[in-house]
Design the sequence.
C-alpha cells in the first residue's frame, strides 16, 4: 500500500477537531480525488499527506514508513502555482533540481539515490517542457504567459523531480473550463504513464468524477469515518457515457449534501 492514513486525529489549536480516528488508504498508482465544502479539511488533509502538518494522534505512512517531515519523493502542486516571477519558465522548471544539487542526495532535500548530473538534469527539463507543451515559452516570464501555461510550468517543475506521490491542491480552480479539462486529462495521463500515486483536492464535483478512481468526501465538522465513492470507470466508460457520468456526480452530490 502506497499511502496509509492510520487513525489520525487533528485539530487547529483549541478549535473544533477536523479529523478523529480517521483512516483510509491510497494504492500505488491510484488517483484519489478529495472533495468537500469549504472548511471541511480538504487542504488540511493534503498538508498532512505532504508532511507539512503533523497529526496529533495516529500516523500517515508512505510505503510503510511513518511520515515525520516532508519527504523528497512527494510532489506538491498548489493552486497559485508558486512560480518565481523573476525567473523564466525554464528556470522555474529547473528550480527543484537546482535545490537538490545544492544539498546533494541527503535523503532529506532529495532522495538518497537521486542522480544529480547536470547534463541529465538539462535533458529532463527539456523533456518536461516539451511534454507539457511549453517548450516555446521557455524564455518567457510568468507574467507573460496565461494561467493555464503557468500551471503547466508548475506541473513540469514537479515532474522533473520524479515524484512517486503527487499531491495537488485545487490546481485547476482558477482556469476556464476547456483549459481545466485539458489539464485534468493531462495529469490523469501522466499519472497512469508513471504509475504515480496521486491525491487531488477539488471543490468541483465534475472534476472529482472526471479524475478520481475513488472519491473521498470530507465534511464540515469532525471527520471520523471516510465516505468513499468507487469510480473505477473514470478513465474510460464514465467519461464517454453522459448518463453514467451524471449518475456518479449525483452520488457525490448526495454525499456532499448529507455532510453539511
Sequence:
Amino acid at each position: 500500500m502506497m499511502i496509509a492514513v492510520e487513525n489520525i486525529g487533528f485539530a487547529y489549536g483549541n478549535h473544533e477537531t477536523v479529523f478523529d480516528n480517521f483512516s483510509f488508504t491510497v494504492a500505488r498508482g491510484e488517483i484519489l480525488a478529495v472533495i468537500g465544502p469549504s472548511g471541511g479539511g480538504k487542504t488540511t488533509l493534503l498538508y498532512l499527506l505532504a508532511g507539512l502538518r503533523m497529526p496529533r494522534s495516529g500516523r500517515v505512512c508512505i510505503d510503510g514508513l511513518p511520515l515525520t517531515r516532508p519527504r523528497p519523493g512527494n510532489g506538491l502542486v498548489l493552486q497559485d502555482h508558486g512560480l518565481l516571477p523573476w525567473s523564466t519558465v525554464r528556470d522555474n522548471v529547473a528550480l527543484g533540481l537546482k535545490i537538490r544539487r545544492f544539498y546533494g542526495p541527503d535523503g532529506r532535500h532529495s532522495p538518497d539515490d537521486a542522480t544529480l548530473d547536470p547534463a541529465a538534469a538539462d535533458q529532463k527539463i527539456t523533456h518536461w517542457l516539451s511534454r507539457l507543451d511549453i517548450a516555446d515559452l521557455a524564455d518567457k516570464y510568468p507574467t507573460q504567459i496565461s494561467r493555464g501555461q503557468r500551471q503547466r510550468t508548475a506541473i513540469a517543475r514537479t515532474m522533473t523531480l520524479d515524484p512517486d506521490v503527487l499531491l495537488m491542491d485545487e490546481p485547476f480552480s482558477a482556469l476556464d473550463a476547456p483549459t481545466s479539462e485539458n489539464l485534468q486529462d493531462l495529469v490523469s495521463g501522466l499519472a497512469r504513464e508513471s504509475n504515480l500515486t496521486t491525491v487531488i483536492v477539488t471543490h468541483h464535483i465534475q472534476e472529482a468524477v472526471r479524475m478520481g478512481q475513488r472519491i473521498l468526501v470530507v465534511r464540515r465538522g469532525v471527520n471520523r469515518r471516510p465516505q468513499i465513492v468507487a469510480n473505477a470507470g473514470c478513465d474510460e466508460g464514465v467519461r464517454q457515457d453522459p448518463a453514467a457520468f451524471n449518475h456518479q456526480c449525483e452520488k457525490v452530490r448526495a454525499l456532499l449534501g448529507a455532510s453539511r
